[in-house]
Amino acid sequence: MRWLPLALLAGAVLAVRRRFVAVRVVGDSMAPGLRSGQVVLVRKVSLDAVRRDQVVVFAPPPGLPAFEGDPPWLVKRVAALPGETFGAAVVPPGRFAVLGDNTERSYDSRKAGLFDADALLGVMVRVLR
């Protein structure tokens, strides 16, 4: 029975790792709130759990020039969700629009259009360091 506390701890660590992940911010698109090099805690969620104005982490669309990082995650603020208006169009199901807080230095939905829900990793919970 001496192994029981260790087994419980290992199970708790696995459960947390399935639900949360740490991601390093690369670039200045979210400055001044988030700076390049900071590490953020991300809760893995589907698009249904995301709300407008939350900061999300997602994979860039295929075919873009390589971003730093492995995998190369994008960190942006949600501007529109399915059924909401973005620009002159309504966002369709399974898609979302994002904007960087630093609009002059952001690759976001103004340039790339809408992003697929399948690319979503999750929502930022807090800055770790």
Automatic annotation (TrEMBL):
<dbReference type="InterPro" id="IPR019533">
    <property type="entry name" value="Peptidase_S26"/>
</dbReference>
<feature type="domain" description="Peptidase S26">
    <location>
        <begin position="90"/>
        <end position="125"/>
    </location>
</feature>
<comment type="similarity">
    <text>Belongs to the peptidase S26 family.</text>
</comment>
<protein>
    <submittedName>
        <fullName>Signal peptidase I</fullName>
    </submittedName>
</protein>
<feature type="active site">
    <location>
        <position position="29"/>
    </location>
</feature>
<feature type="domain" description="Peptidase S26">
    <location>
        <begin position="3"/>
        <end position="85"/>
    </location>
</feature>
<dbReference type="InterPro" id="IPR000223">
    <property type="entry name" value="Pept_S26A_signal_pept_1"/>
</dbReference>
<dbReference type="InterPro" id="IPR036286">
    <property type="entry name" value="LexA/Signal_pep-like_sf"/>
</dbReference>
<dbReference type="GO" id="GO:0005886">
    <property type="term" value="C:plasma membrane"/>
</dbReference>
<feature type="active site">
    <location>
        <position position="76"/>
    </location>
</feature>
<dbReference type="GO" id="GO:0004252">
    <property type="term" value="F:serine-type endopeptidase activity"/>
</dbReference>
<dbReference type="GO" id="GO:0006465">
    <property type="term" value="P:signal peptide processing"/>
</dbReference>
<dbReference type="Pfam" id="PF10502">
    <property type="entry name" value="Peptidase_S26"/>
</dbReference>
